[in-house]
Amino acid sequence: MSSGNLSTWVQTCSVFNQAGRSRSFSSSPINLFHPLKNFPVPFSSSPPKRRRPGFSPFSAVSAVLTSQETVTDVLEEKKPPFDFKAYMIQKAESVNRALDEAVPIREPVTIHEAMRYSLLAGGKRVRPVLCLSACEIVGGDYSVAMPAALAVEMIHTMSLIHDDLPCMDNDSLRRGKPTNHKVFGEDVAVLAGDALLAFAFEHIAVATPGVPPSRVVRAIGELSKSIGSEGLVAGQVVDIDSEGSDNAGLETLEFIHEHKTAALLEAPVVLGAILGGGTDEQVEELRSFARCIGLLFQVVDDILDVTKSSQELGKTAGKDLVADKVTYPKLLGIEKSREFAVKLNKEALEHLSGFDPHKAAPLIALANYIAHRQN
């Protein structure tokens, strides 16, 4: 992960981590539960107030605590707050290493250099981390989902390479670097995207460890559907057709975003849940969660496109406005778009309420990150 991306994580993650930090023992009272009564008993290190004769300030908790050492032990047993920044850095580094190993330089050198140029250009690796986290939330080991996580990132990179071509969005900047076709030419850029798309499915099929073939086939089917004529491609086509149109409303906009963007955020979550051994009920609950954050991602993207600079975004700002594309700020205004983003974030978190809170922490934090990201 590049230093620019790391600084973004630090700024965003501090919002989540500060909320979970406990106050020091000396400055705040602690509520401890009496083992025989269902109510909290306050305990404080400050001097006791004046009380009636014969009353001991510690009598109410004598059955629970007998020394300062006991209080310290109780505090130390508390689990620390989830460290989102550390989790993302660790998982992103694992993904980057695996991508580097999966797509080495070999003959023909030019095409592999072009593939690696965009694939290893940095980025937050949100999609592969979603896949790994979804695997863990249903009780699986993230290693079994790593090939699928890499496949999703390969396909995402393919979509960016093709999106930037002159025949599509005609962009010259991606992740703070010249786009693929600016470096390797349009012909090689098209082929690099094609190669990444093909290798993505090969990698899931041959590299997924210790998972029943039926799950692997199911995962491949989900991924294929998410990017085909009923998924990413469908959204891209309607997006192109709607440019400059006065008839494109909220229904059209939602279709574009659910297919062009949300589909490739839904896929990694569903793949992770399937490969991790999740039940059908768990898979569908996580699918609903992913659809919410997928749409949320694009709503926030639309807002950032008109409120941030190219330098801040690492890509060309304001290009949707120039292309006269239909966006949420265009139809709703910025404030209403922000309100919609808050609603989607809340709905996404509700779909995680039935999972173990400790295992759900990464997905909860990822949803909040997507809602509050700045690039």
List keywords for this structure.
mainly alpha, 3% strand, 375 residues, two-stranded antiparallel sheet, 64% helix
Word description of this protein:
With 375 residues, the chain is mainly alpha-helical. It folds into two domains: 22-77, no CATH class; 84-372, Farnesyl Diphosphate Synthase (Orthogonal Bundle). It has 17 helices and four strands. The protein has helices at residues 3-20, 68-77, 84-102, 109-119, 126-137, 146-163, 180-184, 186-207, 213-227, 232-242, 250-275, 280-307, 310-313, 319-322, 328-332, 334-350, 357-372, and strands at residues 30-33, 40-43, 173-174, 177-178. The strands form two sheets. It has a two-stranded antiparallel sheet. A two-stranded antiparallel ribbon has the order 3-4. A hairpin with a 6-residue loop joins strand 1 and strand 2. Helix 5 runs antiparallel to helix 17 and helix 11 crosses helix 12. The chain starts with a helix and ends with a helix. Mean pLDDT is 82; it is low at 1-76.
The best one-word shape is globular
Work out the count of structural domains: 2
Number of helices: 17
Q: Which oligomeric state applies? A: single chain
Overall pLDDT score: 82
CATH class of the largest domain: Mainly Alpha
* Low-confidence region ranges: 1-76
Topology (SSEs and partners):
Blueprint: H1 3-20, E1 30-33, E2 40-43, H2 68-77, H3 84-102, H4 109-119, H5 126-137, H6 146-163, E3 173-174, E4 177-178, H7 180-184, H8 186-207, H9 213-227, H10 232-242, H11 250-275, H12 280-307, H13 310-313, H14 319-322, H15 328-332, H16 334-350, H17 357-372
Antiparallel strand pairs: 1-2, 3-4
